[in-house]
From TrEMBL:
SMART domains reported in the protein's UniProt record: HECTc
Name under which the protein is recorded: HECT-type E3 ubiquitin transferase
Transmembrane regions listed in the UniProt entry: 68-94
Catalytic activity, as annotated: S-ubiquitinyl-[E2 ubiquitin-conjugating enzyme]-L-cysteine + [acceptor protein]-L-lysine = [E2 ubiquitin-conjugating enzyme]-L-cysteine + N(6)-ubiquitinyl-[acceptor protein]-L-lysine
EC number(s) on file: 2.3.2.26
Keywords: Membrane, Transferase, Transmembrane, Transmembrane helix, Ubl conjugation pathway
GO molecular function per UniProt: ubiquitin protein ligase activity
Pfam families: HECT
Organism: Dendroctonus ponderosae (Mountain pine beetle)
Xref: InterPro entries: E3A/B/C-like, HECT_dom, Hect_E3_ubiquitin_ligase
Amino acid sequence: MENPNDLKKQLVVEFEGEQGIDEGGVSKEFFQLVIEEIFNPDYAMFTMQNESQTVWFNPTSFESTAQFTLIGIVLGLAIYNNIILAVNFPMVLYRKLMGRKGSFEDLVDWNPILYSSLKQMLEFEDADLEEVFMQTFRISYQDVFGTIINYDLKDKGDKIPVTQENKYVSIN
C-alpha cells in the first residue's frame, strides 16, 4: 500500500519448487488457491446463501476491516491481471461498487425465499395482515456459532406488529 502503482504491474507468479513459466495458468492457479482459502467456511468471513449459491459478507465475522480490504485488493489484482474467478456475489454488490443504491428487487438475487415472502406480504391487501403473517419490526439471524441474534428495525420493533397501515413505513 506504500506505492499503489505497484498494484498496476503485471503479476508474475512462481510456485516454489515448481518449474514453469507464468503465461497465465500459474497466476490463475495462484488466485484460485487464494480464493479457496478466502471463502473457506472455517474463517467465517462470508456466508453462503444455499438457494441462490451466492456469498455475502458475514455480519458477525471476527475479522477486521483491513482483512476485507486485503480481499478487495486480491480480487482487484485478479481482475487487473485478466484472471476470471468463480466468485458468486449477488448483483447488488457490483451495483454498490459502481456507486448505485440497492433496492428491494436486488434481494431476489441473494435470497429468493426471503424476497418472495416479503413480496407476498407487500401484495397482501386483506385487513388481517397482522394475523396472517404474524410479523414484527424485528429480524433475526445466526452468528458463526449458531447463536440467534435479534435486531429491531425500529425502537422496540419486537412489540410493533406489521399491519396494512405500517407495512410501507420507512424503518429508518
